[in-house]
UniProtKB/TrEMBL annotation:
It comes from Zobellella taiwanensis. GO terms for molecular function: 23S rRNA (guanine(2445)-N(2))-methyltransferase activity; RNA binding; rRNA (guanine-N7-)-methyltransferase activity. Signal peptide: none annotated. Its EC number is 2.1.1.173, 2.1.1.264. SUPFAM superfamilies: S-adenosyl-L-methionine-dependent methyltransferases (SSF53335). Keywords: Cytoplasm, Methyltransferase, RNA-binding, rRNA processing, S-adenosyl-L-methionine, Transferase. This is Ribosomal RNA large subunit methyltransferase K/L. Residues 43-154 form the THUMP domain. Pfam families: Methyltrans_SAM, RlmL_1st, THUMP, UPF0020. CDD domains: AdoMet_MTases, THUMP_AdoMetMT. Specifically methylates the guanine in position 2445 (m2G2445) and the guanine in position 2069 (m7G2069) of 23S rRNA. InterPro entries: 23SrRNA_methyltr_KL (IPR017244), DNA_methylase_N6_adenine_CS (IPR002052), RlmKL-like_Mtase (IPR000241), RlmKL-like_Mtase_CS (IPR053943), RlmL_1st (IPR054170), SAM-dep_methyl-trfase (IPR019614), SAM-dependent_MTases_sf (IPR029063), THUMP_dom (IPR004114).
């Protein structure tokens, strides 16, 4: 008997071992991502032709201890390569793994290649050729600790490449993983099978191949062993002919009821083409349809098996949450008594189904760790109870009050919810017909999985209460920010939205940054600036996107000066101003370190607004800035620009900030706390959202 090794995706080892045993293999030994076995050559051929789970079948040529590169060379040179590589054939060596002696896989492959070339040159007097792209013979070597194995690849292209896939949608399942999902689901080949999100049809086509008793390798034109010196052509042809007869007979006898649905007509076209190429088009019905419109197409109970999308980015989750919630509702309503198997890399998304799994399996889709969960829908399954009822009731109450208020105030953007209930720790802001949900970092005492589950419940309940679909919900995670972290880039959509705030038109970006370009809690301050600005020269320092400047300009300011370190935000400010017809020489935009700019001689102003960061250590600043430590110096510099009858409005967001009234008095300044008056209705529950003072000269000043 010959020694062989079969590789497979991690998590499929036991299934593969059972399959190989059924094919006649013996002395099976499972290892990580593979199974060693023994058998005659026909067993290896059957494995290449019939294995639905293996990635490769390899003939083991050598296995030896390797402590240095000389051991590697000599061990490889001892293999009788003349028995495996014919004259004139090309070969390639793939090397994986390593130890202290071999840390570079290219070097390991080179030493084995040298050993093969030297041996064959010595015995044949002719140097064999290497072809890394399309070799006749591919040699695979794997080094683990000090043990090296050298194998000959009998498969050629990986066995999951059945030969039927013409085209695929995004992130398709590999065919051997699809087969494993079907096996783990317990699907009865004679029972109906529905895939409500079938994509390019891999799960259904693999099911059809099983039902028709068609060998998964039957359509492949080439295997690696076909160029091997030890290849037995007659044996292979007889096994292939046997498989052809079985497939022909099986296709005629198969009566599976397989249904595939997808809302993307283009991807469904791929699925139909793939089924046609596999020869099983007659066994599968593909129809366009969304999960929301899913109706049970079968007359008897069966299996729902699918690979729902499970995006890797937080921005994709709202739509996916809604999709999984809708799928769970449809399963309970339409598929009572059915088995359900779903694979996902996100257990949280599967939890949104609100179904209790009977069994779960750890699998890998490439390098991505996934979980397959099997469910049974009860005959008396009822609609799921509303999610997060306390939260949903509070949000509905807030919505009713604030929607009416916002319309009266002519504002498109406002806060709907701000951690009103401690267990649902998030802020929800409305931007016209969009929502931005910001998850606050949970206390360390709350387990991460529990906080995550609550947040997902909150998101689903929010969409249900507001009626805002998932593609218009933006998720963000907000922790306490330092310096300019709130301004850092998160995405690159460059997707802008125009919103109204009283008489101002402003641009927001909901996706690319943690903050959107509009601090909602400063809305009354901006309105106040607009009321005060007529005929005044206005300075906006640490201006961000210039929204305060817009209000001052619309209020009739004689001139405006907008200063910020960021070129990006100054350009945003200019766009905001232009959107409101505010342009020309009387509106200046200055990119500078704000404290450095103030230190230089410059113009005086009647009205100044300053809203500095709590802390900043930007590379563009000479020194770090701490608003508690440095606010007196900041206000001293600003006082040098403040006209005798001028007004300075100073705001910041530092909790427990203490204004140094004594130091201001020494500067001749007096501060009036207007924090409470500057809080808008939608932030009434959070009096610590910001601090705000009106600062004037305490006595006539020249």
């Amino acid at each position: 008997m010959l020694p062989f090794f079969a590789t497979c995706p991690k998590g499929l080892e036991s299934l593969l071992s059972e399959e190989l045993q059924q094919l006649g293999a013996s002395e099976l030994q499972e290892t990580v991502a593979g199974v060693a076995f023994k058998g005659e050559l026909d067993i290896a051929y059957r494995a290449c032709l019939w294995s639905r789970l293996a990635s490769r079948i390899m003939l083991q040529l050598a296995d030896f201890t390797m402590r240095d590169d000389m051991d590697l060379y000599l061990g490889a040179a001892n293999v009788e390569w003349e028995r495996h590589i014919q004259e004139g054939q090309t070969f390639a060596v793939d090397f994986s793994g390593g130890n202290n002696a071999i840390t570079n896989t290219q070097y390991g492959a080179l030493k084995i290649k040298d050993a093969i070339v030297d041996r064959l040159s010595k015995r044949r007097g002719e140097r064999p050729n290497v072809d890394k792209r399309t070799p006749d013979i591919r040699i695979l070597a794997h080094l683990k600790r000090n043990q090296l194995s050298i194998t000959l690849d009998l498969s050629g292209p990986a066995l999951h490449q059945r030969g039927y896939r013409q085209q695929a949608g995004e992130a398709p399942l590999k065919e051997n993983l699809a087969a494993a999902i079907l096996l783990r689901s317990g699907w009865d080949k004679g029972a109906p099978l529905v895939d409500p999100m079938c994509g390019s049809g891999t799960l259904l086509i693999e099911a059809a191949l099983m039902a028709a008793d068609q060998a998964p390798g039957l359509l492949r034109p080439r295997f690696g062993f076909m160029a091997w010196s030890g290849h037995d052509r007659e044996l292979w042809q007889s096994l292939h002919a046997e498989a052809t007869v079985r497939a022909t007979r099986g296709l005629k006898q198969a009566e599976p009821v397989l249904f595939g649905f997808d809302q993307d007509q283009r991807v469904l076209g791929f699925a139909r083409d793939n089924a046609e190429a596999a020869g099983v088009a007659a066994l599968v019905r593909f129809e366009q349809g969304s999960v929301d419109a899913l109706v049970n197409p079968a007359e008897q109970p069966g299996w729902v098996i699918s690979n729902p999308p499970y995006g890797e980015r937080l921005s994709e989750f709202p739509s996916l949450l809604g999709l999984h919630q809708a799928l769970g509702d449809k399963l309970r309503d339409q598929f009572k008594g059915w088995h359900v198997s779903l694979i996902s890399s996100s257990p949280e998304l599967l939890s949104c189904l609100r179904l209790r799994p009977e069994k779960s399996y750890k699998l890998f889709n490439g390098a991505l760790a996934c979980e397959l969960r099997n469910y049974r829908i009860a005959e008396d399954a009822r609609a799921a109870r509303p999610l997060a009822e306390d939260f949903a009731n509070r949000l509905a109450k807030n919505l009713k009050v604030l929607e009416k208020w916002a319309r009266a105030e002519q504002i498109d953007c406002y806060r709907l919810y701000d951690a009103d209930l401690p267990e649902y720790n998030a802020a929800i802001d409305r931007y016209r017909d969009h929502l931005v949900i910001q998850e606050y970092a949970a206390p360390k005492s709350i387990p991460e999985h529990k906080a995550r589950a609550r947040f997902f419940d909150l998101v689903q309940a929010t969409m249900a209460v507001t009626g805002v679909p998932g593609d218009k919900v933006v998720l963000k995670v907000r922790a306490r920010q330092k310096g300019t972290e709130q301004y850092e880039k998160l995405d690159r959509r460059e997707q802008w939205m125009e919103v109204q705030e009283h008489n101002a038109r402003l641009l927001v970006n909901l996706y690319d940054y943690l903050d959107t370009g509009l601090f909602l809690d400063h809305r009354p301050i901006r309105k106040r600036l607009g009321e005060l600005a007529r005929g005044k020269d206005f300075l906006n320092l640490f201006a961000y996107t210039g929204t305060a400047t817009v209000h001052a300009g619309l209020g009739g300011a004689s001139s405006t000066t907008t200063v910020d370190m960021s070129r990006t935000y100054l350009a945003w400010a200019e766009r905001n101003m232009a959107l409101n017809g505010l342009s020309g020489r009387r509106h200046q935009f200055i990119q500078a370190d704000c404290l450095g700019w103030l230190s230089q001689p410059g113009a005086d102003y009647d009205l100044i607004f300053v809203d500095p960061p709590t802390f900043s250590n930007s590379k563009r600043m000479e020194d770090s800035f701490d608003v508690q430590r440095d606010h007196v110096e900041l206000l001293r510099l600003l006082s040098q620009r403040l006209r005798p009858d001028g007004l300075l409005i100073f705001s910041n967001n530092k909790r427990h900030f203490k204004l140094d009234h004594d130091a201001l008095a020494e500067l001749g300044l007096a501060a009036k706390d207007i924090t409470r008056a500057s809080l808008p209705k939608d932030f009434a529950r959070n009096p610590q959202i910001h601090n705000c003072w009106e600062i004037r000269w305490s006595q006539p000043h020249e």
